[in-house]
Design brief:
This protein is α/β, with parallel strands linked by helices and 418 residues long. It has 14 helices and 24 strands. It binds uridine-diphosphate-N-acetylglucosamine.
């Protein structure tokens, strides 16, 4: 179990580059199961979750070669198995994304049931209901979910919630089906759109991407392609918060601000301004003039739940009372007791965190309970007086590539220790 040792209070300045989006990479990698041939993927972040997905693809028989730091060649010469094992699905829920492509390509899949996770129960009922509506028969046995379909037939489907991976799984299942599939109340996240753009480059006919009504006209065949993954908007948001709290001397590079509209607007409300120059963004921020605010997490284009924890650190630095309401996951405030150990004054009632600032963050020994909770504690550590020891950093490495090296390069005193 690794830890980060952070000496807070250093001046941070310089260029902080943003990696490719984890949540676009995972479905796009899974999607290489859908058609035989050779794919080239660029801007793939070097992350634990990506390694797990690559292992899973290798388990199915794909050959994967790293051809540059963030580029992969993926050869699909046919699948050796249609079963995703417990060892890989249990360590990463997004492994369930192989179900859609396997069903589309081979009409059959057996995937170990994903368990609960640190931030909530996270059922997959909407994925399964959608597969059934497309004509698949679903069975649950011995901890596995089996899906079979002779022919998937296009259908108009309503998703009870705009689930991100659910929408992705259903798009992938529908692309090779007969007829037209319409997904109503679909997820609008940029990562869903990126998967759709990748599939369209392969020959799929998908329209309405980025809206809540996605239309998929089934095609006979798909062809592999070369594709560049979009930048990670959550990582960009994390770095912009860090910049706002450390004087604004960080240039965050490789940002698509169009993917961060709600985040940008709420930060502007607080008193933070953005200087955007192409894909480089710098914040202009004077901590003394920040105003408290209330934020609600919502599906895209609402405020992202994946930036909730990091934003709470920002709100904790502002004089007055702010509120953060979490509506996507039921158990996503596990960073709050850790922040309170570092000096914050945050109370939780139901799904609302009431944050009383300003906080004089002090270094402490704390624990990363999930990926974004970990990121928020790194920010808190970097703005604290003295030393923070952050345990369970495996969670952070699932989603942030070479974080220590990138932060060291802008002047942070952070090191990894076993
Ligand atoms: C994705 C992201 C994750 C992000 C989340 C919400 C990936 C790999 N992960 O996760 O980083 O935090 O979107 O933006 O892209 N739900 C159901 N039934 C289902 C599916 C979901 O009830 O069949 C519920 C979940 O329990 C949750 C809500 O819907 O309360 C949103 O979940 P969902 O959008 O599916 O999140 P993920 O796709 O798992």
């Amino acid at each position: 179990m690794g830890k980060y040792i952070i000496q807070g209070g250093k001046t941070l300045s310089g260029v902080l580059p943003v990696s490719g989006a984890k949540n676009a990479t995972l479905p796009i990698l899974a999607c290489t199961l859908i058609a035989e041939g050779t794919y080239f993927l660029n801007n793939v972040p070097a992350l634990k979750d990506v390694e797990v997905m690559i292992k899973l693809l290798e388990h199915f028989g794909l050959k994967i070669e790293k051809i540059a730091q963030n580029s992969y060649k993926i050869i699909n010469n046919g699948l050796q198995t249609l079963e995703a094992p417990y060892e890989l699905v249990s360590i990463m829920r997004a492994s369930f994304l192989v179900m859609g492509p396997l069903l589309a390509h081979r009409g059959e899949a057996r995937v170990s049931m994903p368990g609960g996770c640190a931030i909530g129960n996270r059922p997959i009922d909407i994925h399964l209901k959608g597969f059934e509506q497309l004509g698949a028969t679903i069975k649950t046995e011995h901890g596995f979910i089996s899906a079979k379909a002779k022919n998937l037939i296009g259908k108009e489907i309503y998703l009870d919630f705009p689930t991100v991976t659910g929408t992705e799984n259903l798009i992938m299942a529908a692309v090779l089906s007969k007829g037209i599939t319409i997904l109503n109340n679909a997820a609008r996240e940029p990562e869903v759109e990126d998967l759709g753009n990748f599939l369209n480059k392969m020959g799929a006919k998908i329209t309405g991407l980025g809206t809540d009504r996605i239309i998929i006209e089934g095609v006979e065949k798909l062809f592999p392609c070369e594709y560049n993954i979009i930048p990670d908007r959550i990582e960009a948001g994390t770095f912009l918060i860090l910049s706002a709290l450390t004087g604004g001397n960080i240039v965050v590079k490789g940002v698509n601000m169009e993917h961060l509209t709600s985040f940008k607007t709420k930060l502007e409300e607080i008193g933070i301004n953005f200087k955007i120059n192409g894909d480089e963004v710098q914040v202009q921020a004077d901590l003394n003039n920040f105003k408290p605010t209330n934020i609600i997490t919502l599906p895209y284009p609402g405020f992202p739940t994946d930036l909730q924890a990091q934003t709470i650190v920002l709100l904790a630095m502002i004089k007055g009372n702010s509120e953060m309401k979490e509506t996507i996951f039921e158990n996503r405030f596990r960073h709050v007791p850790e922040l309170n150990r570092m000096g914050a004054n945050i109370k939780i009632e139901g799904n609302v965190a009431s944050i009383n600032g300003p906080t004089n963050f002090q270094g402490a020994e704390v624990e990363a309970t999930d990926l974004r909770a970990g990121a928020c504690l790194v920010i808190a550590g970097l703005i604290s007086s003295n030393t923070t020891i952050l345990n369970n950093i495996e969670h952070i490495e699932r989603g942030y590539e070479n974080l220590v090296e990138r932060l060291q390069a802008i002047g942070a005193e952070i090191k990894k220790s076993e």
